[in-house]
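Practice problem: predict the structure.
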Amino acid sequence: MPEPGAAPNGSRTGLVIEKVKRMISSGELRAGDRLPIEKELAARWGVSRGSLREAVRALAALGILETRQGDGTYVTQLDPAVMLAPLGFYAGLQGHARVVELLALRRTLETESAALAAARISDEQLDRLEAILAQLDSQFATGHVDPERFLDADTDFHRSIAVASGNRALAAVVDSLMTRTVRARLWRALTERDSVAEAHAEHRAVLAALLARDPQRASIRMASHLLGVEKYAEAHPAEMGAVDRDAEPSVDPAPTDAQ
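Answer:
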């Protein structure tokens, strides 16, 4: 049986984590606030200082608390980008079967982010998206595409749309899903399908819908754009699995001619 006041699994560390979480969710502690001193919290919750310190370390690793040497422990700014970052670690570890699930998740999220962005995007954000795609236009004009530059532009394009959605949590999750391994799989799928230029054209179609401030069209264009890679990954496990076997996925081959 767990000790009185302990977490359901009997862990005093878990109890402290739950207590801190409740203090934050109730508003008793807000972003930037300093926690009460260790001695006070240990007595208040009936736990040892060791359990308290272990919980603080765990919460610090999650980006919820930060310990300042000689000054105590504080609640962070609770930035979604920091707190949701571990999702990227999870995404980078997954094999082919789960990658297809993650690509489907990404499509669902980015379809919504494109719709939201179409209604909320600023002129400055639209200019930034145009600048991102313009960087690649000259490469496609010459038929000489650098993989790393393409992937950097692709990542920047999708991240910028998610930010323009105005939903910080949504933008943070989208950002977390763009790991190096996912980028390598994207490049593999595009080159195997000989569709790098097609992907660039799809980016342009998404931007056109955003310029028109048409949420429905932006959503459809984004869904269509992401569905191609998802379906390819689902149908070609061997090709996608080859990326899993690489210790450091290669996205730096010699420049590829875009058709």
